[in-house]
Amino acid sequence: MSFTHIIEAFVTGMKATGPIEYIAVFAGIISVWYSRKENILVYPIGLINTIFYTYLSFKGGLLGEASVNLYYTVMSIYGWFMWSRTSDVHAVKLHVTKATKKEWITHLLFFAGFYVVIFFALTYAKKEFAPDAIPWADALASASAYTGMWLMAKKKVESWYWWIITNIASVPLYFVKYYVFTSVYYVVLLIMAFWGLGEWLKKARLQHHEK
User: Fold this and answer.
1) What are phi and psi of 156, to 5 degrees?
2) For 143-196, what is each residue's pLDDT tens digit?
3) What are phi and psi of 179, to 5 degrees?
4) Distance CA 207, CA 137 (A)
5) CA pair distance 168, 154, nearest whole angstrom
6) Contacts with 66 (C-beta within 8 Å, 6 or more apart), sequence order
7) Using an 8 Å Cβ cutoff, are 125 and 67 in contact?
8) Cβ atoms within 10 A of the Cβ of 174, count?
9) Which of 17, 41, 155, 189 could form a cystine bridge with 181, CB 3.0-4.6 A?
10) Which residue stretches of the chain have pLDDT < 50?
């Protein structure tokens, strides 16, 4: 695809962007902003984003991403509960921390497990009823997102590394599906993910020094 074709596709896609996609994008950006600030509003606002993107992903044939957004919805409720436990005097307050080597292995196995399952599921779907599916790309974006959301609920710094992978994979994935505004959204999220990583690294170092 030439640069001219990319620009034409971008303009056409932006013109075709509907209100649901606009709401989902802005809710997602606000949600990531709150996650960077370690603010619990990340979850209720994030639910708006995930519910709308579940619908859009199914509509666009992005079955892996649809499953991710369903997972986001469940994990947002879980994360909301975990983060809100700070008001419970009997609960252990979650702090931003870095993963140990043992935890890293668990994270990688978690990612690999989801990648394999999603890849083979989408390969089957592509042959049977979803010819436009892109198994390897959708599986990469989806499995890294599953991992990132799980680790964010646990306030692990490493969640941001997985978000960076998700965002990089999602930019071209949504663009070729003509969700151009969403593609731009993932570019914004990629920038914010690097920003969030820097913020949480500082928090983890401070937490380490206070022990």
Assistant:
1) -95, 135
2) 999 899 889 888 899 999 999 999 999 999 888 887 888 888 899 989 989 998
3) -95, 75
4) 36
5) 23
6) 54, 57, 58
7) no
8) 26
9) 17
10) 89-91
